[in-house]
Amino acid sequence: MLKQEFCYSQFDNLKLFMTYYSAQNNCQTKATLLYFHGGGLLYGQRDDLPEVYCQLLTENGYNVLTIDYPLAPEVKLPTIVSYLKEAIDWFLKHYQTTLGLEHSDYFLFGRSAGGFLSYLLSARYPFPEQKGLISFYGYYDLMSPSFSQPSSYYNQFPKIAPLAAQELIYPNPIAEVSINERFSLYLSGRQFGNWLSYLVSSPSEKETFSLTDTELAELPPVFLAHSSADQDVPVELSRIASSKIPNATYEEIEALPHDFDGDITKNEGLQAYQALILWLDKTLSTT
User: Fold this and answer.
1) What region, left, alpha or beta, does residue 40 occupy, with left being phi > 0 and alpha being psi -120 to 50 degrees?
2) Alpha-carbon distances of 47 from 22, 38, 51, 144, 275, rounded to whole Å
3) C-alpha closest to that of 39 among 186, 160, 205, 258
């Protein structure tokens, strides 16, 4: 597996990068997965997808392009989305000259908050080259009551007052920060029910950045994976999505935490990615 890094844009003094994971022979590529990381849109970094899954995908003909985006609350959702549109544009412009690909077929793929971004861009920035959408424990609806109410799960942990959490906000935009350094900001947001205030400028924007039933019905083929015991993003969001999206494949994992594929010692993660590859092959063969 080869790894290459490219700069696709710049925001003030912040350069935004991509990492391109490819098989040794690009000619065998079936499609490229444009990947958005999780972290509640407040933390994380583009290369958080365990290498074992990148290896599995590239061996089966699916290159992976992991993408930086500026994080909240230093910026709000409209800015995040605008740069990810630039990233998609970059791929469509450079797939041949820079990446050496024969075709520009792609899937949007995200985990958790990255799944939300994948939903949003699939609905609001569609291209014929996009063949499908992949969401691992993601969500499409910021209006879900669980996101605006104090979380019983997160309130089991020591309380972090909003003012203390806000000391973790940087003076300038960033695109990468570790979970250890900034999880407290997300934790506080979920404890006090004010997480979404870091993402949007007004309560009405929560609806603006939620997909309607009409938009769900018009999505390309979708692969969803979610654990029944998810303590962070309600599993009901993927269950409802799978019922409203006409061409949806849904894998429900039993009794594991939110990011069930993060523990590579457990078989469930590997099985989900093997199911994903079968779905990718089937989707491409029917489009």
Assistant:
1) left
2) 14, 10, 9, 28, 22
3) 186
Structural domain 2-286, CATH architecture: 3-Layer(aba) Sandwich (3.40)
Cβ atoms of 241 and 216 closer than 8 Å? yes
Question: Which structure tokens are listed for 233?
Answer: 């993003």
| Global pTM exceeds 0.90 | yes
Quote the tokens at residue 197: 């205030």
Tens-of-pLDDT digits for all 287 residues of the chain? 899 999 999 999 999 999 999 987 655 799 999 999 999 999 999 999 999 999 999 999 999 999 999 999 999 999 999 999 999 999 999 999 999 999 999 999 999 999 999 999 999 999 999 999 999 999 999 999 999 999 999 999 999 999 999 999 999 999 999 999 999 999 999 999 999 999 999 999 999 999 999 999 999 999 999 999 999 999 999 999 999 999 999 999 999 999 999 989 889 999 999 999 999 999 999 97
Listed as own residue / partner, the contacts of 245-249 with beta carbons closer than 8 Å and 24 or more positions apart are 245/216, 245/217, 245/219, 246/217, 247/219, 247/220, 247/221, 247/222, 248/221, 248/222, 248/223, 248/224, 249/221, 249/222, 249/223, 249/224, 249/279
